[in-house]
Write a structure and sequence with these properties.
The chain has 192 residues and is mostly helical. It contains 7 helices and 5 strands. Helix 1 packs parallel to helix 3, helix 2 crosses helix 3 and helix 5 packs parallel to helix 7. The radius of gyration is 21 Å and the shape is elongated.
């Protein structure tokens, strides 16, 4: 289930880009197969938001829509402040800007089927839980690499006894998550 903030972004970016509600829903169906935000997962949100982001900045560049980083009254670029806020140098407005970075959502997408940050965070979080049940000599990246290999049939590269996470693709990460959940279930009797 996605967060309220993610739901808000699913409406904010299309509004900024001048995308109609019908176009927004059609993009959701085409990209993820979901008919509403209730059916989306985090990866689906990232995929749709990357699509909306591309449209937004293409339309800003072509002059079809206003740059969200500019003052809505005088049109001057806003000065970037802390916490995503922007202030007009003329003093016209001070507001939260939700689209400072032109490539934020597109950078979140995995490259060439590589695991994204959510996959890796989940693997590392579950691994942290599992290490509580393992002997000290098994609490190593080398042992985790063995779990990854056992789950996916592929081994990540190790450098200086540390996993090089950029060598873990999304399939390897997904299978590793399920393998660690299975091991945790053996130790705890419940799913993580």
């Amino acid at each position: 289930m996605i967060s309220p903030k993610e739901k808000a972004y699913l409406h904010m970016y299309p509004d900024l880009a001048g995308i109609t509600e019908a176009e927004r829903r059609q993009a959701m169906v085409n990209l993820t197969g979901a008919f509403s935000s209730l059916e989306l997962n985090h990866e689906g949100v990232d995929l749709i938001m990357a699509h909306f982001e591309e449209i937004l900045w293409d339309r800003v560049d072509s002059g079809q829509v206003k740059d969200p980083r500019c003052c809505r009254k005088c049109g001057r670029p806003l000065k970037r402040l802390k916490y995503g806020r922007g202030e007009c140098v003329e003093g016209c407005e001070l507001r939260k800007v939700h689209a400072w970075d032109q490539h934020y959502w597109r950078r979140k997408l995995p490259n060439q089927d590589m695991a994204n940050t959510r996959h890796l965070w989940k693997v590392k979080s579950l691994w942290g839980l599992l290490t509580d049940f393992l002997d000290e000599h098994k609490r190593t990246d080398h042992y985790l690499a063995g779990i990854i290999h056992g789950a996916s049939g592929r081994s990540p590269l190790l450098k200086d006894h540390k996993i090089e996470w950029e060598t873990v693709n999304s399939r390897m990460a997904h299978l590793t998550i399920e393998a660690i959940k299975g091991r945790l279930k053996q130790y705890t009797g419940e799913t993580a």
